């Protein structure tokens, strides 16, 4: 904790912006450091890339299966479908395994890891609150009202499309894979993408919305952090 406090006090990012005015860009830079010092490792590029590779491979496989076989040289369509299926499963499986490896500790000892996370976050959080209090109260109140309004509208819009995505975790991808592979047998590579057009659109949209949903969840979480810090800086 002492080391974290010293690092916070010596951080160049804590200085005011050149204009001396509180901005969300400046707050973003401060919160970047706050998020980076979490006890949990962040998703790696490999983990994020695995999800997007799976999404792209799913779309290519469904598109290839929907096209007439006469457009491809003999046997090439089956080969493309085999490669797409292999890449799709490998991408999603890699992302899932890396996520479990990264977050597994908090499920093995959830209370202990949560307490350690709170200890690690508190020093930096208090430092950012002190930094915000150096700005005029009126500026902080205005930005808090704006951030609160944006957070509520974003939550409502996300609820209509994604529901409780952050609570479902990897489940939507498993449902999409089930819809795609429920009638598939080993060796029937074309059958892995042999679905009707309606099911193909549903599967692809489910996987695509899952990936986009997590991007928006991250943005909303960052917005909630802004609100919490501004509220704390205004508290007596």
Q: What does this protein look like?
A:
This protein has 236 residues and is an all-alpha fold. 75% of the residues lie in helices and 0% in strands. The protein has 9 helices and no strands. Helix 6 packs antiparallel against helix 9 and helix 8 packs antiparallel against helix 9. The N terminus is likely disordered.
First-residue to last-residue Cα separation: 24 Å
Biggest beta sheet summary:
none
Overall mean pLDDT stands at 75
Choose one word for the global shape: elongated
Structural class: mainly alpha
CA gyration radius, whole angstroms? 23 Å
- DSSP strand (E) fraction? under 5%
Number of discrete helical segments: 9
The ordered H/E elements are HHHHHHHHH
**What is the helical fraction, as a range of percent?**
over 70%
The counted number of beta strands is 0
Low-confidence stretches: 1-13
Descriptive keywords:
single chain, 236 residues, mainly alpha, disordered N terminus
Ordered list of secondary-structure elements with their pairings:
Blueprint: H1 2-9, H2 24-36, H3 45-66, H4 76-108, H5 110-132, H6 137-161, H7 165-168, H8 171-181, H9 197-234
Summarize the structure.
The protein has 236 residues and is an all-alpha fold. The protein is 75% helix and 0% strand. The longest helix is centred in the C-terminal third of the chain and has 38 residues.
